[in-house]
Design brief:
With 417 residues, this protein is of the alpha/beta class. It has 2 domains: 3-25 and 295-404, Aspartate Aminotransferase, domain 1; 37-292, 3-Layer(aba) Sandwich (Aspartate Aminotransferase, domain 2), CATH 3.40.640. 39% of the residues lie in helices and 16% in strands. The strands form 5 sheets. It has a 7-stranded mixed beta sheet, sandwiched between helices. Strands 13-14-17-16 form a 4-stranded antiparallel beta sheet, with helices on one face. It has a two-stranded antiparallel sheet with strand order 1-2. Strand 8, helix 8 and strand 9 form a beta-alpha-beta unit. Helix 2 (35-48) packs antiparallel against helix 10, helix 3 (58-78) packs across helix 10 and helix 11 packs parallel to helix 14 (390-407). The longest helix has 23 residues, at 296-318. The protein is globular and about 90 Å long.
């Protein structure tokens, strides 16, 4: 994979801070955007801006066609059965809230149990906790082992009545763990439970094929896969989506409204109240085109090389003083590296790396139950992507070496004779 050529497509990566070229290693939070995507969003406002589905004039029809073509592109990307199964949302957070709220109201009964995992992002915990606090569901968590893998034995003990939903992340935004989704989904379906998949972290790294995965609902954010912020998608099996009540009410999602009754439109319109982010959807289509043009085999090879190099540098340079959490060297994992450096707080590490123009993230990464499980208040996270190479990781480790020297304890003075 020609990383140098790819990097040239991302204008922000030419920026410098304090005289040093930016090394961006925070793609798990948001990916950078190629010029093609930036231009696609701007071009909509320059040439096509009109509200969709409402106008009978040519500009509105053109905007509507572009918006629906974007829906078809997302459906193709996910290998959905039909584009009508795809609902545009602001991102995975809104998608998970939509799924949770509508499932609780339309598919679940009081006392039903939802099973999730301790490695989830807050957006796949808090909506279910809200439902629990209102007395509508029970909530249980699958634990992990010390290598960051789900304890599937615990999962088995939680299946069966009253479990009706299993909801989990495909790839951990902290550990880089790639969960065995098909196995988990098959076991859930054998006992009559629905499966919800948070694919926010997997879509940028592994092929998300909803048919092959065997799940019932999937959501992801466009901004993590080269698209703009404020756009994402929910996919759901059509027979289930048609049984869900709307998440929001307003214009566009209704068939008729009268003083005493309302009739809703079918899927996907019933879940897209108000004016949608048409420009974002069109730009997302452009992002998916750019991304898949790289090729899955080349992406996999590139990311495997990044993973190997990161672990090699951590071991060779720090000899146990830098701990990387999650699956270890040689195990399948995404290039998401959360680590602790002995003697230094994660926020201090990130701040000092910033002085070297190396951008990483520090904190609990919206995964506090996982931090509690790991016994840490926070971690530093480096998450490279398609526009990063070995030299970027070396810049990070060079800076970490300097950070370690800053926090090194001074040698004790010799004792008096």
């Amino acid at each position: 994979m020609d990383v140098a050529r790819i990097r040239d497509d991302f204008p922000i990566l030419s920026r410098e801070f304090r005289g040093k070229k930016l090394v961006y290693l925070d793609s798990a939070a948001t990916s950078q955007k190629p010029t093609k995507v930036i231009d696609a969003e701007a071009d909509f406002y320059r040439r096509q801006n009109a509200n969709v589905h409402r106008g009978v004039y040519s500009l509105s029809e053109e905007a509507t066609d572009a918006y629906e073509h974007a829906r078809e592109r997302v459906a193709s990307f996910l290998n959905a059965y039909d584009s009508s199964e795809v609902v545009f949302v602001r991102g995975a957070t809104e998608g998970l809230n939509l799924i949770a709220s509508s499932m609780v109201e339309g598919l679940l009964q009081k006392g039903d149990r939802v099973v999730t995992t301790v490695m989830e992002h807050h957006s796949n915990i808090v909506p279910w906790q809200i439902a629990k606090s209102r007395g509508k569901i029970e909530l249980a968590f699958i634990d992990i082992d010390d290598q960051g893998h789900l304890r599937l034995g615990d999962y088995g003990s939680l299946l069966g009545r009253p479990t009706k939903v299993v909801t989990l992340t495909h790839v951990s935004n902290v550990l880089g763990t790639i969960n065995p989704v098909r196995e988990i989904a098959d076991r859930a379906h054998e006992l009559g439970a629905y499966v919800v998949l948070d694919a926010a972290q997997s879509v940028p790294h592994v092929k998300v094929d909803v048919r092959a995965l065997g799940v019932d609902f999937v959501t992801f954010s466009g901004h993590k896969v080269l698209g703009p912020m404020g756009i994402g998608a929910v996919w759901g099996r059509r027979e289930l989506m048609d049984r869900l009540p709307p998440y929001m009410g307003g214009g566009e999602m209704i068939q008729e409204v009268h003083r005493d009754r309302v009739e809703f439109r079918g899927t996907p319109a019933r879940f897209e109240a108000g004016t949608p982010n048409v420009a974002g959807a069109i730009a997302l289509q452009s992002a998916l085109d750019y991304f898949e043009n790289i090729g899955w085999a080349d992406l996999e090879s590139h990311e495997e090389a990044l993973v190997r190099h990161f672990f090699r540098q951590a071991e060779d340079r720090f000899d146990g003083r830098l701990r990387v959490y999650g699956p270890g060297r040689g195990e399948p994992r995404a290039p998401v590296f959360s680590f602790s450096l002995a003697g230094a707080h994660p926020h201090d590490v990130a701040s000092l790396l910033d002085t070297e123009a190396v951008a990483v993230r520090a904190g609990h990464h919206c995964a506090q139950p996982l931090m509690e499980r790991l016994g840490v208040p926070a971690l530093t996270r480096a998450s490279p992507y398609i526009y990063n190479d070995i030299a970027d990781l070396d810049r990070c480790f060079d800076a970490l070496t300097r950070v370690e020297k800053v926090f090194a304890r001074p040698a004790s003075p010799p004792k008096a004779a």
